[in-house]
Amino acid sequence: MLNEERRRAILDIINHEGRVLVQSLAPKFGASQVTIRKDLEILHSQGLVYRTHGGALPVRSGALLDPSLREKEKLHRKEKQKIGAAAARLVKEGESVVLDSGTTTTGVARALRDFRRLTVITNAVNIAADLAGTDVEVILTGGILRENSFSLVGPLAEDTLRHLSADILFLGVDGFDVHFGLTTPNMLEAKVNRVMVEIARRTVAVCDSSKFGRRSLALIAPPSAVQQTITDRRIPKSDLHGLEEAGIDVILV
Question: pTM for this structure?
């Protein structure tokens, strides 16, 4: 394989999977890690990827970038489905659950559809629609509709949440830096998410492994606000170790 062919193939993998690691690319292409690092550096210099320690991310991973729900739905579908199923196993009949907006939490909502006695509190219009027609009681916050995420934000959404209490919050994020915290590109979304953390007895971060090592614009909460994290087995070992050191229980799917 020519150098240019290999780099195009690497770029395709990054854009499809959301991240790559040097140690996994090297055997895949029969190349040394030094060669793969050089490939990633070249792609980075061309503005095609964002180079990170140990790998690379798509350029769309910028802190200000706010992809639509439809764009996010195309990424990591299998992982999100497994994460949703694992999240549902943490829920008991009769409990109240908070779900923020996002494709991973949408996966959680779909895994909760068979519950008979359950209350779901959400600011996501699409999640409320997914649960319509089931036995799940849905409380949808008011607020200003964000077109990108189908979520409701603003003072009305925050005030509604402050009058409620929940057993568990499943929080989807755009970035999870184990030293900095959980982040999202929209400041209004972050404010609503912070209130969700305040009213829930337990907070569980639900995110695929591509979200680790990333920071978006607005901080939702520090790692200490999270009791559990559900992610896939491709999480970097350094991030897994960081979560465990912070006392966060990790469920791998």
Answer: 0.74
